[in-house]
Amino acid sequence: LGLERVRFGERLVVERDIAPAALGCLVPPLILQPLLENAVRHGIGELLEGGTVRIEAARGDGRLRIAITNPRDAAAGAPGRRGLGLDNVRSRLAALYGAEGRLDVTAGETTYRAALRLPALEGGDGR
């Protein structure tokens, strides 16, 4: 996000809402990178005025939930080719956590949301 902030300047605002209970949870390396990249490229990058990427994380019921929400221009339509980022995230979650790992995406009229759900694991088990 730091590099994207240099590129987009004031057009990119990042908000974080991370619950204290989520801070100690492990997240697989680079699992958020493609989701944030999509939020910036297909969300902020399509809007002349830019916008806010919001990152939320919460822990409850043995699960870690992370959501990335960004504005979108529904009139811009879908990209010409299907990207592999979301499929790769889903495959990695399935390989690591089976049915306990999940990625859901919601494309609204003016927002796009990618929501991860995975076991709330703490410590250094290498994930």
Overview of this protein structure:
By secondary structure, the chain is α+β, with helices and mostly antiparallel strands. 24% of the residues lie in helices and 32% in strands. It is built from 3 helices and 5 strands, in the order H-E-H-E-E-H-E-E. It is globular. The model has no long low-confidence stretch (mean pLDDT 90).
Task: Return the structural class.
Answer: alpha+beta
Strand residue content: 25-35%
Q: Residue ranges: pLDDT <50 for 5 or more in a row?
A: none
Shape: globular
The helix count comes to 3
Written as H for each helix and E for each strand, in order along the chain, the element string is HEHEEHEE
| Strand arrangement across the biggest beta sheet | 1-2-3-5-4
Mean pLDDT: 90
- Percent helix: 10-25%
The separation of the N and C termini measures 22 Å
Largest sheet: 5 strands, mixed
Radius of gyration: 15 Å
Number of separate strands = 5
